[in-house]
Amino acid sequence: MSTNQGYDVVVDVDAEGDLGHTDLQEDLEFHSSNFEDNQARTKIPPDQSRGFLPNNSSSASSSSKRYLWSISFYAQFFDVDTNEVLRRCYAAIFPRANFLDVLEGNPDLYGPFWIATTVVMILFLTGTISQYLSMKGEGHFAYDFRLLSGAAGLIYGYTGVIPILLWGTLKWFGSESANILECWALYGYANLIWIPVALISWSPITILNWVFVGIGFGISALFLFRNLYPVLSATDVKTSKILLILVVALHAGLSLAIKILFFAHGSPASKKPESHDGDDKLRRMVFGS
Questions:
Q1: 205-244 in b/e burial notation, b at 16+ Cβ within 10 A?
Q2: Average of pLDDT values for 257-284?
Q3: Strands 29-32 and 7-10
Q4: Predicted structure pTM score
Q5: What counts of helices (H) and strands (E) characterise the chain?
Q6: Cβ-contact 217, 252 below 8 angstroms
């Protein structure tokens, strides 16, 4: 038997070992050689798990992880563009559908943060104007930056803490639809109405300021009631009613705080410095100067 170009040649030989009249066309049989196939079957496949470059699937799964201390973890809460924020602001002022449907499963913190910051700055500016007009030219007017700290504490505290308490209460009563980001987004966009209210509530006419603040309370409270009612209804009837009353009562407290602290004469948020004339007289009597 000999091999030539991948074929096996089989030759029939007589018992005496004589080829004799062997007819090659009749006695030779050609078979396809399986020598290369045997080599392929006996070849050891390479180890794909020990390559020099990492596997793409493993790198993709590791890159999808977001850690609390990474920027990508917080970037997902601000994943909106300007047009989307404006659309949500319009839906908050002129609601036609449930605001949770407007969010489309992507609640953001970008809009609520800048809305709250704008409200803080406008409350400080218009509150300062209201105080200036209430002085009626009596003495030198001095800016009171305690108005700024008071506005920041009131707006940021209300917008940041109340949604957490509401979300925790809903979780406590077994609500599965409660989402902390959606609660933040609802309360954040509900503050939008206070921007025009603050811009027009600096006048010294007290009754007019009460009307403006009342309108702001009505619009924002209706916005919260309309969008929180389906979420609060996930609890029992008694609990949902109590929670709705608490939501409206706390929002009324915010409205009263805005009116009394920033748009009322003699605001507690901006007390005039106390006079120390008595202390000066006593000091002169003791030290003789």
A1: eeeebeebbeebbebbbebbeebbeebbbebeeebbeebb
A2: 58
A3: antiparallel
A4: 0.67
A5: 13, 3
A6: yes
